[in-house]
Design a protein that fits this description.
The protein is of the alpha+beta class. The chain is built from eight helices and ten strands.
């Protein structure tokens, strides 16, 4: 099944326009997720929307949005009124400017999306915009409305399409001063830097996402499988942080430890594509789902009538 677009509209660069669709570039659907249960009955917990004063449950059609003015006063805003907020970016991503990638502070990045032509028309215009961004080695900055909010979006060429990253507004980014002001000014000696650089050189490599494994996710899956199999669960020792008394000594020991680790490290084999959550959560041996068991059960033979 083709992925469902989060947004459809138009991409426009001056007078060049094409229909486009916006798709989420990331997904967390494969992560282990938990439901809340009643410890006594094992039943799932259900949440109901209730009136804060009367305690009565409220139907979805009777719920409207409201902006809190003070403790007892709200300004109600209907869905129709929100839809009537006339913003060009509701239906069109207008490219306002082009900037260098290095100018975008990483604190402003939110999440990535794939931007593709929508339908059979407009591929030529899309290609012109895409290749202009690619050839100029720039990031195109525009605006788009998602979930009733206008976002800044940064567009860059990626293969045959565009990748658009939502950006935060300045008022959403906290100043670092309130966190960094109390950090002490420490004089780092050249010898310490030389040792630290040596460690960095030993650990230097290339960013290859497929090398990384979500160890916590793997541990969760192991925990669930062990509990399903009725195996005992034992608590693992937690890592303990130790105070560094002699920084130079710690740096020297780190270098020796890295050398030993590199010598003992086996050659990395190419990894297969990561298995999804459903594949890793294996069924318990001897216990097949009811539907599967029913499907494999042979049909009963018709009884022969006696002559």
């Amino acid at each position: 099944m083709a992925p469902r677009a989060n947004w459809k509209g138009f991409l426009r660069l001056s007078l060049v326009t094409c229909p486009v669709a916006l798709y989420p570039a990331t997904s967390e659907s494969e992560k282990v997720s938990f439901n809340q249960l009643n410890r006594k009955t094992g039943h799932r917990i259900k949440y109901a929307k209730v009136d804060a004063d009367t305690g009565e449950e409220v139907a979805n059609e009777d719920i409207v949005k409201g902006y809190k003015v003070d403790d007892d006063t709200f300004v109600e805003v209907t869905r129709e009124e929100l839809e009537n907020v006339a913003l060009e970016s509701t239906r069109t991503i207008e490219i306002d400017e082009f900037v260098d990638r290095s100018e975008i502070d990483p604190r402003y990045l939110i999440r990535p999306y794939y931007l593709c032509p929508d339908g059979k028309v407009g591929h030529d215009a899309f290609a012109v915009i895409r290749e202009t961004i690619r050839e100029m080695n720039k990031i195109a900055i525009g605006r788009v409305v998602l979930t009733n909010r206008e976002h800044i979006v940064a567009l860059e060429a990626m293969d045959k399409g565009l990748i658009g990253t939502l950006l935060r507004y300045p008022y959403e980014v906290r100043s670092a001063d309130e966190y960094f002001d109390e950090i002490q000014d420490v004089k780092v000696t050249k010898d310490m830097l030389d040792l630290a650089r040596h460690i960095v050189n030993q650990k230097s490599g290339h960013f290859e996402p497929e090398k990384f494994e979500d160890q916590y996710e793997t541990a969760l899956i192991d925990l669930i499988n062990r509990k399903r199999a009725g195996k005992p669960i034992t608590a693992k020792a937690r890592p303990r942080g130790e105070n560094v008394v002699d920084l130079m000594d710690a740096l020297r020991k780190s270098i020796g430890g890295e050398k030993a680790a590199q010598a003992a490290k086996p050659a990395r084999k190419p990894r297969k594509a990561a298995s999804g959550q459903k594949e890793m959560l294996m069924p318990i041996a001897g216990k097949k789902p009811a539907k599967e068991a029913a499907a494999k059960k042979p049909a009963a033979r018709p009884q022969r009538k006696s002559a």
